[in-house]
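Contributing new records

If you add data, match the layout below exactly. Sequence lines come first and carry their own label; structure lines follow with theirs. Keep one chain per record. Anything else will be rejected by the validation script.
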Amino acid sequence: MVRILAFLVLFLALPLVASAEEPDAAQYQRIITQQLEAFRSDDGALAYSFAAPIIRQAFPTPDAFMTMVKRGYMPVYRAQSYKFGETVTGGQGSPGQR
């Protein structure tokens, strides 16, 4: 379950902070935490604001986005717990937070 959470949150939130700089673990973790808190409080607009551009293309409204998360990623939508692992820079310089 933690792996699902990490994958989805990375895919949704981290592309917003991609840059040529070294990974900033504190920044990534703040963004991920804010998105998880938005899910927990059913604030679709705020959760959607952290979505990667490719996710926004697939789900063009906050309501569509939240429906997808609720139906397919309940462990993320209602995460009981999570922890952060290593911050990495992946292929093509994309950021990652495990």
